[in-house]
Amino acid sequence: MKITIVNGSPRKGNTVAAINALISGLNNHEVELIDADKVNISPCRGCGVCECYKGCVAQDDSNAVIDILVASDMIIFASPVYWWGITAQIKKLIDKCYCKGALLKGKKIGLIIVGGASTDNEQYDLIGRQFNCISEYLNWDIVFYNKYSASAANELAGNTDAMNDLKSLAESI
């Protein structure tokens, strides 16, 4: 299976630790990592020229990145929590999914969200509801939604339970 992981964190901290733990268990899969902070994607302008399948008219990395998602069997979005939501970097990429939304229908989706609050905090519910709406629109199948709490730099990497959970998750995919 071809799995694309979209890293929404601009830093190399807890979200990257979660991604690395997951990747370490995805041995039997083709894995591609997209760092949303490193690609040049302009915001969607809602111009409609793409008609949800033609691609974006912007002269940036939008089409190349979205084509990677289209070619994937599963997309995993990994994001820290910023102001009760996903990062702007990952949101901008998701907004650009509109340009080929008709080609993205039916994808398997995974979510890894890392926040400073405990995992029963409302921020995780807000993110979950947002992805439920996106998934309903694009007919995505959310296979998993894993939430982790870590606020200090590199705290998650030292959490044996979380690291083992991520490795087990990878083996179950």
Q: Can you summarize this structure?
A:
With 173 residues, the chain is an alpha/beta fold. The chain has helices spanning 14-24, 62-70, 88-96, 122-138, 160-172, and strands spanning 2-7, 30-35, 74-80, 108-115, 141-149. It has a single domain, classed as 3-Layer(aba) Sandwich (Rossmann fold).
Shape estimate = globular
Per CATH, the architecture is 3-Layer(aba) Sandwich
* Structural class label: alpha/beta
- Mean pLDDT metric: 93
Number of strands: 5
- Number of domains as seen in the coordinates: 1
What assembly state would you assign to the polypeptide chains in this entry? single chain
CATH homology-level superfamily: Flavodoxin domain
Strand order of the largest sheet: 2-1-3-4-5
> Low-confidence parts, pLDDT < 50 over ≥5 residues?
none
Q: Give the N-to-C terminal Cα separation.
A: 9 Å
Strand content is: 15-25%
Main beta sheet strand tally, sense and closure: 5 strands, parallel
What is the percent of helical residues? Answer: 25-40%
CATH C-level: Alpha Beta
